[in-house]
Design a protein that fits this description.
two-stranded antiparallel ribbon, 13 helices
Length: about 525
């Protein structure tokens, strides 16, 4: 699982003993005061341009006034790991790294969105990386025949940027960061888990939303679903499960299970408790409308049941009920798709990630096709790359021993990465050591899509929850989440408890209790 665990370490700049230009730190930096050109007012960011740290190339330094005064630092580690750091003038002593989604490829900082834009406003230094390559998040072609790039993307780039950022922080402010947080979702959530599992000394609290923690399992799921949605590799224009079929399916699920939580609102509080049978919508000999064909039922059952080999061996978890009739960030964009939905010749995100992983990471063949491929071979074919990409190791002993806290969340209606994957991981952590529940918590979010959005309560003060846990040492048992529209909110409960409606206003957290 953790075949590549060691890496070159960059020393964290020590606390200077004689001011920001004295002591040991003076050996690593040029004093900021020497940079100001004659006749020009000295900028609070000038010193950053003169940084001299091992393996660091300074690309650009700018002073920015919004949302608060800060320095924007762009740099490169080694030959290709690009990164940026935002350093506020009024620093609170904290460092927060943000994750990247998909196949990464740009300096996306998920800490900004996951904090509701509060990271800089509250005085945190924050950083992000492109993980060592430049591409769109749906493009995995950079990985072809490039093991170094795969390792950087898999885990090493985030770790190296973490250490470099902390050294830059110490040099700029004259003291090291007192607290370190990581915030990421999707691939960013996977990055957070990699940090906890491989580099437990890097962060005090990690937020891992909807983590893509099982890449080989995800590859099997995406390929299996895509092959059933688009069985003809040369015809990627119309999925087997049409928009009309998705609407029919969703209406039937809601009719069967929506009101079981005491509220008829289109949100399934506990999708796992829904006993809807897809085959109840099967077309009969005399019916062909308002029903599902055998081919459609097969594709839908693969989504809910997970991919299987021809002999019935399970390769990954299935999806809970949810987001069937949702286009943006639901089944319509992730699983079923339509012509060019995710780009030219790319009908769905599942197609992009499934074929991208297979072609460029696993088979090393840009022309590889799923046509005729025996899915039973996938676990062995993907085994080598899984050792680098997967983040499903339940051993968090080292992270917990130094006081680390891991906060996970997952939308029940996530159509990209199944909430069952996060449940399975946390189950494995608790099964290995029941005391881990004091340091590892999972919150499931009814009606919430991939990372954010949906009909359910999706707005949470994640940064505040992380701070409270870090400062008090008490694990969160419940959180409040707001709706994106219409006002109000609900209570979220630490898994395995769930929010039970007790009456009164269904859009008020006080109307729910955790049981």
């Amino acid at each position: 699982m953790n075949a590549i665990r060691s890496s070159p370490r960059l020393p964290l700049a020590p606390r200077p003993t004689a001011g920001p230009c004295g002591g040991l730190l003076a050996l690593m930096i040029v004093c900021a005061g020497s940079l100001a050109a004659p006749g020009r007012a000295e900028s609070r960011c000038d010193g950053l341009a003169a940084l001299r740290l091992p393996d660091l190339t300074v690309l650009d330094v700018t002073e920015v006034g919004s949302p608060v005064g800060h320095c924007k630092f762009d740099g490169r580690i080694g030959r290709r790991i690009g990164f940026s750091i935002w350093l506020p003038h009024e620093w609170n002593g904290g460092f927060a790294m943000g994750g990247q989604g998909g196949f990464a490829g740009s300096v996306e900082n998920q800490a900004l969105a996951l904090s509701g834009g509060q990271i800089l406003r509250q005085g945190w230094v924050t950083a992000a990386t492109d993980t060592g390559h430049r591409a769109s998040a749906l493009d995995g072609s950079w990985a072809l025949h490039d093991l170094e790039a795969i390792v950087d993307y898999g885990h090493l780039a985030v770790h190296r940027v973490t250490e470099m950022s902390k050294a830059i922080v110490a040099a700029h402010y004259g003291r090291p960061a007192e607290t370190s947080f990581f915030l990421g979702c999707s691939n960013g959530g996977r990055q957070g888990l990699q940090e906890a599992q491989r580099y437990p000394e890097d962060y005090d609290v990690i937020l891992a939303g909807a983590p893509a923690l099982d890449f080989d399992g995800l590859g099997a799921a995406f390929l299996s679903i895509t092959r059933q949605m688009y069985p003809e590799i040369d015809d990627l224009t119309q999925p087997v499960v049409t928009d009309e079929a998705r609407s029919l399916l969703r209406a039937a699920i809601e009719d069967r299970c929506d009101a079981r939580d005491g509220i008829s609102d289109g949100i399934l509080a506990d999708p796992a408790a829904c006993d809807f049978e897809v085959r109840s919508l099967a077309c009969g000999e005399a019916t062909s409308e308002g029903c599902l064909s055998a081919e459609q039922i097969g594709a839908i059952e693969t989504i809910y049941g997970g991919p299987r080999t021809a002999t019935g061996e399970s390769l990954h978890v299935g999806f809970p009920f949810g987001a069937e009739d949702t286009d943006a960030n639901g089944w319509g964009s992730w699983l079923s798709g339509r012509a060019d939905a995710a780009g030219p010749g790319i009908p769905s995100a599942a197609y992009a990630f499934g074929t991208g992983l297979a072609r460029y990471f696993v088979h090393h063949d840009a022309d590889w096709s799923y046509e005729g491929y025996d899915l039973a071979r996938w676990p062995e074919d993907a085994r080598a790359v899984a050792r680098t990409l997967d983040a499903n190791d339940p051993d968090l002993d080292a992270f917990r021993a130094r006081g680390g806290k891991l906060l996970l969340y997952h939308g029940w209606s996530d159509a990209a990465l199944s909430a069952n994957m996060s449940i399975g991981y946390v189950e494995s952590v608790y099964r290995r050591d029941a005391s881990a529940a004091e340091d590892v918590r999972l919150f499931l979010m009814p009606g919430v899509l991939h990372c954010f959005g949906g009909e359910g309560p999706a707005v949470v003060d994640w940064l505040g929850a992380m701070q409270r846990w870090h400062e008090s040492g008490e694990p969160p048992r419940e959180l409040e989440a707001g709706f994106l529209s219409g006002g109000g909110g609900r209570k979220l409960c630490s898994w395995p408890t769930q929010a039970v409606y007790t009456g009164d206003d269904p859009r008020h957290p006080a109307s729910f209790t955790c049981r």
